[in-house]
Amino acid sequence: MKMPNGYGNIAKLSGKRRNPWRVRKTKGWSEDGKQLYINIGYYKTREEAINALSNYNQNPYDIETNSITFSEVYKKWSEEHFNEIVPSAVRTWKSAYSYCKPLYNMRFKDIRVEHLEGTINAATVGQCTKSRIKSLFNLLYKYALKHEIADKDYASLCNSVKSGSKIIERIPFTEEEIEKLWENIDYPFVDMILIDIYSGWRPQELAILKTSDIDLETGIMKGGLKTDAGKNRIVPIHSIIKPLIEKRYNPNNEFLFNDEDGQQGTFMTYDKYRGRFNKIMKKLNMKHRPHDARHTFITLGKQFNMNEYILKLIVGHAIKDITEKVYTHRTIEELKIEIEKIKQ
Questions:
Q1: Cα separation of 6 and 160, whole Å?
Q2: What per-residue confidence (pLDDT) applies to 259?
Q3: Cβ(316)–Cβ(226) under 8 Å?
Q4: Bridge partners of 39?
Q5: What per-residue confidence (pLDDT) applies to 162?
Q6: If you average pLDDT over every residue of the chain, what do you get?
Q7: What does the alpha-carbon distance between residue 174 and residue 178 come to, in Å, rounded to a whole number?
Q8: How far apart are CA 256 and CA 249, in angstroms?
Q9: CA separation for the pair 315, 179 (Å, rounded)
Q10: Would strands 214-215 and 35-43 be described as parallel, antiparallel, or unpaired?
Q11: First-residue to last-residue Cα distance in the chain
């Protein structure tokens, strides 16, 4: 049966094939007058091929989206997502992707739960990395659904990663340890730890704090990453650390903190900060992790009876109380008053 002009064509390919019936449609003409085709798909029977062509003509869809592979979805997603996160986070996603080779060349629309679970189970890594792979699947399917590449979230049905809740022990700096930091203030980057103890930034937020987001006149800093509650928040400059920030502040530098001895540029990263932090801990005989400085601020805030909601606003924690969540008139002066409750 001959198809109407412009309808498309069906042909049975030679040789032994699982799906010998090819369906394609003309998408245009080359400069020398030859037809240019797009393949709609390959099918087991002529009847299936006719139905596929009929369905396409009744409701045309993006062929490129229909045939896009797992790797291509990852590439498109990463081009957007990697611009919004810090370099250390980028490396963790790239690492997770490196264990997804069985999926690289599969059409995204053909991937099912067994493929996702099989990839996770086959990865010779620990549970932490497997959880990261699962998280990558979640984000890719969220992207695919948004762009109509997939019509079902198979990642949400994937349950290969079964691990208990990860408990991270946060140990605040003691009063004696904070005093010891002040006694060693001239040691490189000790000031960075003290600034964090009295401001509550996440280490990666502090590392990339821009000078343009610091207003010494009004006494505030702006910044934040990770969550909606944490982004673009205002943190007052505690009077205790104001001299430290003033000493670091240079309007000619993009960032407040710079690593002049860095082998890969002077800009600070979380990895660089962690290395400097660990060096300080070893020198001063302390046992802490970078996030302990932020936890110390939260602990001190509670100890000195800071307003609960203002403390959450400063550190970027979500506020569940709907009354406070919609309350947008917390003034800078209120934030300053509360943060100054913390004493040295």
A1: 47
A2: 74
A3: yes
A4: 24
A5: 56
A6: 84
A7: 6
A8: 6
A9: 23
A10: unpaired
A11: 88
Contacts 24+ apart (CB under 8 A), 80-84: 80/143, 81/139
Confidence check: pLDDT of 322 > 50? no
Block residue for tokens 């094939």: 17
Residue 9: both structure tokens together: 């064509």
Nearest to 257 by CA among 339, 188, 181, 180: 188
Asked if 295 contacts 301 with a C-beta cutoff of 8 angstroms, the reply is: no
Indicate the SS3 state at residue 230.
Answer: coil
Phi, psi of 214 (to 5 degrees): -115, 125
Alpha-helical segments (H) within 218-344: 242-248, 270-283, 291-303, 308-315, 322-325, 332-339
Rg (CA), the chain: 28
* 108 touches 68 (CB < 8 A): yes
Q: Using CA atoms, how far apart are residues 125 and 327, in angstroms rounded to an integer?
A: 45
In order of their start, the domains of the chain are 9-60 (no CATH), 70-157 (1.10.150.130), 175-339 (1.10.443.10)
Q: Tell me the pLDDT tens digit for each residue of 62-75.
A: 555 677 889 989 99
**Selection from 273, 318, 320, 311 nearest residue 292 by Cα:** 273
The alpha carbon of residue 218 and the mean position of all alpha carbons in its chain are separated, in whole angstroms, by 32
CA 319 to mean position of chain CA atoms: 21
DSSP string of 114-136, one letter each residue = HHHHHHHHH--S-HHHHHHHHHH
Reported in sequence order, the residue ranges of the chain that DSSP labels E, i.e. its strands, are 9-12, 21-29, 35-43, 214-215, 220-223, 233-236
Mean pLDDT for the stretch of residues 156-179:
77
Most confident of 110-114, 157-161, 164-168, 282-286: 282-286
- The set of residues, in sequence order, having a beta carbon less than 8 Å from that of 87 and lying 6+ positions away, is 269, 270, 271
